[in-house]
Hints:
Layout: H1 2-7, H2 14-26, H3 35-42, H4 46-55, H5 61-75, H6 94-115, H7 118-129, E1 133-137, H8 142-154, E2 160-163, H9 166-174, E3 180-186, H10 192-204, E4 207-212, H11 218-222, E5 225-228, H12 242-262, H13 264-278
Parallel strand pairs: 1-2, 1-3, 3-4, 4-5
Amino acid sequence: xxxxxxREQAGLSPVEHSIADYFLEAGxxxxxxxxxxxxxxxxxxxxxVSRFCKHLGYSGYTDFRDAYLDExxxxxxxxxxxxxxxxxxxxxxxxxxxxxxxxLYRETVDxxxxxxxxxxxxxxxxxxxxxxxxxxxxxxxxxxxxxxxxDKMARIGRRVIMSSKGDTSYFFASGAHSDEVFILLSxxxxxxxxLRVAEQAKAAGGSVIAVTSYGRNSxxxxxxxxxxxxxxxxxVEKLGCYGMSISTMLILDIIYSCxxxxxxxxxxxxxxxxxxxYEYDRDSSNPILQDRxx
Length: 294
């Protein structure tokens, strides 16, 4: 994220240090400031300010400022009560831990829903719905969550292939067709294998959907469409991958549900029909669980 880039100042010149510090201190006040006005305050040239923004990966100061302001709005908008990295303390009993994890789930869901851009979601759904094959790749624990997505999609007649192996996904991407899509799950957006799969899929003519952290990263820049996960956890210094896992499950469920809804009646009937054919002897004495057999 931009804030982390500004704080990590190793290798910067003294002038670049001063620009980074100024951006951090100014925060949302940058909205009404130009590169020229900032340069005047720091006794440097506007081109130096613009060059520093390009060093961070932006086309110039205006591009950087807009992205930075968006990030600051996001960071100040949620997670007021639970620390996503350490959601509970060692002194908490089981009841308190349960309550805090429940709160973390609720806040994470709200966070993801806030981050979802309607246009990006619509594009992702249409891409998946029109694909002949959907490939999902994750090298992390979220690969197990994607298995549920595979099962759901299969029940409405949609083929999804899940792999947690970088080489297998790379080989799939090498032979990608224009009507095939790759959903790549990577919190950092810098996972080497995910980037190789994305590059290969794009080169072969396939589409790429990135499910990754908020802010610019290498994967989101390669993808045709990006859906952002809750971005509150550190890469290592955390008690669990709560946010990424909750976010991944929610986003994949939303994609599945939206694809089903495109032809609701047919897909709903198909799902029940094939499930009953396979689970023909499944029953329960609990009236809440019993299906209607009309």
